[in-house]
Amino acid sequence: xxxxxxxxxxxxxxxxxxxxxxxxxxxxxxxxxxxxxxxxxxxxxxxxxxxxxxxxxxxxxxxxxxxxxxxxxxxxxxxxxxxxxxxxxxxxxxxxxxxxxxxxxxxxxxxxxxxxxxxxxxxxxxxxxxxxxxxxxxxxxxxxxxxxxxxxxxxxxxxxxxxxxxxxxxxxxxxxxxxxxxxxxxxxxxxxxxxxxxxxxxxxxxxxxxxxxxxxxxxxxxxxxxxxxxxxxxxxxxxxxxxxxxxxxxxxxxxxxxxxxxxxxxxxxxxxxxxxxxxxxxxxxxxxxxxxxxxxxxxxxxxxxxxxxxxxxxxxxxxxxxxxxxxxxxxxxxxxxxxxxxxxxxxxxxxxxxxxxxxxxxxxxxxxxxxxxxxxxxxxxxxxxxxxxxxxxxxxxxxxxxxxxxxxxxxxxxxxxxxxxxxxxxxxxxxxxxxxxxxxxxxxxxxxxxxxxxxxxxxxxxxxxxxxxxxxxxxxxxxxxxxxxxxxxxxxxxxxxxxxxxxxxxxxxxxxxxxxxxxxxxxxxxxxxxxxxxxxxxxxxxxxxxxxxxxxxxxxxxxxxxxxxxxxxxxxxxxxxxxxxxxxxxxxxxxxxxxxxxxxxxxxxxxxxxxxxxxxxxxxxxxxxxxxxxxxxxxxxxxxxxxxxxxxxxxxxxxxxxxxxxxxxxxxxxxxxxxxxxxxxxxxxxxxxxxxxxxxxxxxxxxxxxxxxxxxxxxxxxxxxxxxxxxxxxxxxxxxxxxxxxxxxxxxxx
Length: 750
Description:
Layout: H1 2-26, H2 35-48, H3 51-65, H4 69-102, H5 127-139, H6 146-156, H7 159-164, H8 173-186, H9 189-201, H10 211-230, H11 239-247, H12 252-261, H13 270-289, H14 295-300, E1 309-321, E2 330-333, E3 336-339, H15 344-348, H16 351-360, E4 414-426, E5 432-438, E6 444-450, H17 462-468, H18 495-509, E7 514-517, H19 528-539, H20 542-550, E8 553-556, H21 567-583, H22 590-604, E9 610-611, E10 621-622, H23 624-629, H24 651-675, E11 692-695, E12 706-715, E13 721-728, E14 733-737, E15 742-743
Parallel strand pairs: 7-8
Antiparallel strand pairs: 1-4, 2-3, 5-6, 9-10, 11-12, 11-15, 12-13, 13-14
């Protein structure tokens, strides 16, 4: 009996849960439903659903212990009826509310152009925009792995912000650490407000009344005020302060105009000041665009750069006049004789009509006078500088002055043979200085030197070199320092395979003028059939015909002389050496081996040769890839698979692990070659300030190099530099031993 009593109490507790659920839904007002209430109902449904199974389990045990089956059946039916009635009622409420949500317009999935992520350099005022944009695009997107989020974050940071997380390795666990570091450092409301207020006080002063300068000060005011308002500052009550601050930056003319608009003693609002600045900008834009509105105003204005250009025009004319009357520049309008350039009716005509009238009167198109031979007038068009009168200037005028329309027949018909040969002569004034240089006999000779502050060296003319008696030496400059590598994988050594690989090479790299190859006997370990096959390929008529069609010269090195290959044999040896130790005994299919070769080619062509700029903030390296594709080669970020057992990797991950193994081996050997020195008889050169060096990059993903510039050296007591301070491209300063610095070759050492 005790057990039955406990079960009945447990059944009562379950029924009380259903009663509590009914009491809650009875209070729901369907007219005031919202998303929060719907979510509450859904959670309660999930919570109440298991009680039916619990009730059934308890009731089954009671049925076995109690003999009154009718009473137990009634309890079961009553509970089930209430349970399903309440659930149906709640689901009906939810279904009634859901169509209202579904009535919202459906956003179609369309392909939009990619959005470029903003960059953040440590400016407090730029942090809110960067935080919102990066969070929406990258941080809150669950589809992006953490490692790629970290990669995007690093690529979006620079300067001080990048230095803050530079010590963190590119791993999945470090992404949250880096993101929290940035938030702790820059998500500071007080400092952000202080930065915007400082920018308001540091507005650039307007020195001259122009639309550009007024727009700049207006845009900066609105930008910082909106930012402060979004941060909760009472910007609307700062009108007098902002107006006083802004007017102190205006020029005298604009300030006078602003004071003229104030008609009462009531302080103006910022909205009135903003409206005034916008009207001033519109007025100045209209005035600036109408400076050259009419040609007559251009005539009265001073000449435009009269000495900038001087056109020399040779004009040969053969005039034959039927009535033999003397033509002159005077014309007769309304019984008044006056020069054509003073005629009011002539000035009212459009430019093409003036040109036609001048040709009818056989006048010079430059001075508007009648003469034969060259025009000796020093004047030219004051608008375009060409050798024609300003009155005849047209926006679409052609350089030749021929008229496509035939002149109308008149009593005085003229036949004109015209030949024009114009040559522009530009006069450029350069700053020079007269200096005295000592020749090889000790005598001083005067000469003129061009003062060019942008160059460190100056050229000397051959005439001055002979006069000074200077010695001459031939200079040979090597242009084969890039050593770019292109790898092709072919299925066999047939003629068609060679032509196909040559076509692929020319489609990607362009047509080459010469091809150097070995003589097939240097295929060490190859069988006689392979040598014969390669010999047949080289002697096939289709290959020379293909090369002759493309204008390519094919040269062979002597047989059994691989050392004649030089640079390309060294490249082949380097690739085979590392490829054999990287792939080992793995069996790869064609696509996998081709992928590995393509990525190895990118690794080899990513090695730095020198830098493109001397600025420590812009240490972008010049690589062989710049000569092939015009820029650096980049690959997506990948996880490091070198530490994982190879039998646990999938095929494509195994391929990436092989490439990463190749990168670690080859990069370390490449860095060691930069420090390699042979025996020496003289003291070697010390590390100097300004040298460009590489740091150990084997821990980074492939094709990533750490480039730095030596900014400070620390010589020992013996004067030998063993420690140096370098600055990386991110602005971070590091102190390293010179044995850990790998200097790039300088121009005189290349």
